[in-house]
Write a structure and sequence with these properties.
With about 280 residues, this protein is of the alpha/beta class. The chain has eleven helices and ten strands.
């Protein structure tokens, strides 16, 4: 079974659009997401364009602020301070990565936690690990939604996560743990990775290496979630971290790239923006 993040996200976005359509009558306006893009990295430009398109579909107001790569950290912090103070901005997203001369951690920490739609603010991260209410990071949240929609049982199963980044590997591990999976986190220093991944009932791969996980690393019947977004060195086309052709023969459930985790990430960003808006309206 191939789980289509594209289909699920289309359905969830349609539901959100219906919800947002009622907001002007109720709250006087729609949610407003501000996205800051620094520089012109093609990957970042395409992600920001995708976020603007999804906002339009859902009825969320989107302001994309484009700044040259030479912007100073102080200037960027100044823009964030203005957006923090703007009562009509509900969500602030700084597209990563930032140019090397800018301290990403400092920039993320400067965003008002209540407007941190990416869930990257240190207070949101701490809240996630302490099981406190928080904005969940979009990709891990989307992965759990995909698993739930596919009817995958998580409780009591062995989940192996390949990759330990702050934006995917670590938080998805925590969400799987909270859903009562037994979680193993692996990384570039893991010895005999295949032996560990073969123990997975649920395998989540987020490493950024084209087609790295091959069929021999996957147990028959496993559920495989491929987070990777890479260029296939042979064809130049988008591909995941999982060798889809081989692994789909063994997996019971698998996500494609493109059309799997990616659309769910954007969908969860829309959901987070609505949640931030509603929390602010309640105050
Ligand atoms: P990072 O580069 O931040 O982290 C990569 C992780 O993979 C590290 O923990 C690293 O280990 C581990 N790793 C690298 N090589 C190996 C290896 N050979 N064996 C085992 N582990 C390895 O990547 P991200 O988490 O940011 O992204 C991962 C992928 O997911 C990328 O392709 C990215 O484009 C994609 N992505 C997709 C999203 C979506 O919405 N679909 C959203 C975010 C990311 P170590 O810590 O030891 O270095």
């Amino acid at each position: 079974m191939i789980i289509s993040g594209k289909e699920l996200s289309a359905k969830l976005k349609a539901d959100m659009a219906a919800e947002v359509a009622a907001f002007p009558a109720k709250y006087g306006r729609v949610p407003h997401l501000a996205v800051i893009l620094v520089g012109e990295d093609p990957g970042s430009v395409s992600y920001v364009t995708g976020k603007a398109k999804a906002s339009a579909e859902v009825g969320i107001r989107n302001t994309t602020i484009r700044k040259p790569a030479e912007i100073t950290e102080e200037e960027l912090l100044g823009i964030i301070a203005e957006l923090n103070a703007d009562d009509e901005v509900d969500g602030i997203l700084v597209q990563l990565p930032l140019p090397k001369h800018i301290d990403e951690d400092r920039v993320i920490a400067a965003i008002d936690r209540a407007k941190d739609v990416d869930g990257f603010h240190p207070q949101n991260v701490a809240a996630l690990w302490q099981k406190q209410p928080c904005t969940l990071p979009c990709t891990p949240k989307g992965i759990i939604k995909l698993l739930r929609a596919a009817g995958v049982e998580i409780e009591g199963r062995n989940a192996v996560v390949v990759g330990r980044s702050n934006i995917v590997g670590l938080p998805v591990s925590k969400l799987l743990l909270d859903a009562n999976a037994t979680v193993t986190i692996t990384h570039s220093r893991t010895r005999d990775l295949g032996a560990v991944t073969r123990g997975a009932d649920i395998l989540v791969v987020a490493i950024g290496r084209p087609k790295f996980v091959t069929a021999d690393m996957v147990r028959e019947g496993a559920v495989v979630i491929d987070v990777g977004v890479n260029r296939d060195p042979d064809t130049g086309r988008l591909c995941g971290d999982v060798d889809f052709a081989g692994v789909s023969e063994r997996a019971s459930v698998i996500t494609p790239v493109p059309g799997g985790v990616g659309p769910m990430t954007i969908c969860c960003l829309m959901e987070n923006t609505i949640e931030c808006f509603l929390r602010r309206m309640a105050h």
